[in-house]
Amino acid sequence: MSIIINTNEVSSNWKLLATKMPVSELKKKQIETSRTSVRPPKLTKAVCIDCEMVGVGENGMDNMLARVSIVNQLGQCLYDKYVKPTEPVVDYRTAVSGITEQNLENGIPLNVVQKEVSDIIQHRTLVGHAIHNDLQVLFLSHPKRRIRDTQRYKGFRSLFNGGLPSLKALADKVLGLKIQTGAHDSVEDARVTMQLYVQHRREWEKSLREKNSLTSEEKHKRIRARQKQKRLQSSSSSSFTKKTI
Which InterPro entries match (predicted)? Predict the structure, then answer.
């Protein structure tokens, strides 16, 4: 599988990311770059989501969804849409979010975005950074076992003394990339987050399998302990009845 990158559309960060992809992900084929030929992006087993938000409510302190971006495991953009506000925007947070009033004038209704995003992520591994924030503003849920949050992965947290690292810090320390030097770009952030997952997927998934195995074993031990306790109680009760008779 070759990755074809349209150099007119992607950032220099993503071109650098593509060259760092593990050989296993590229199936030992060389990365190709092309200015004219771009294959349609395809859904992969894992997808990564990132959202930009604007401020609503008193002093603009509450979050409201403004933009949703989803990329596949190859970093190709599957979805990137602005969302029509459902209430007055108090603070566009343009310096950080990159969102302007003009961006949202022709935004897609929230219920449409919810349906489209839900269709994409259904039955897939969903990657994100502090992903609970994205799901919260989308008013969507996703099975916990299918979520991979780069902010909470122990392998990454160990690099920051157990703290919850920012995506910017992770990109710098793990990938050697400088991102979010100005306004955020949800497509680029999603690509960086996906690359963090892809590069560490094997050990990440292995740690989850081991954890689930231990959890399953602990459950069986507890069940056996409860069954043993019930037998002892039953035996004790029978002995007491015989003595009474």
Answer: REX4_DEDDh_dom, REXO1/3/4-like, Ribonucl_H, RNaseH-like_sf, RNaseH_sf
Indicate the length of the chain as a whole number.
245
What is the value of pTM for the model shown? Answer: 0.76
Beta bridge partners of 51: 68
* Greatest alpha-carbon span in the chain: 94
Residues 6 or more apart whose Cβ sits within 8 Å of residue 90:
55, 56, 57, 58, 59, 60
Indicate whether 12 pLDDT > 70: no
Crossing angle of helices 201-244 and 186-199, in 10° steps, is 70
Reported as a pLDDT band with limits 50, 70 and 90, residue 32 is very low
The domains located in the chain, with CATH, are 43-199 (3.30.420.10)
Distance from C-alpha of 198 to C-alpha of 73, rounded to nearest angstrom = 7
CA distances from 211 to 17, 28, 71, 73, 214 (A): 30, 31, 28, 24, 5
CB 190 within 8 Å of CB 74: no
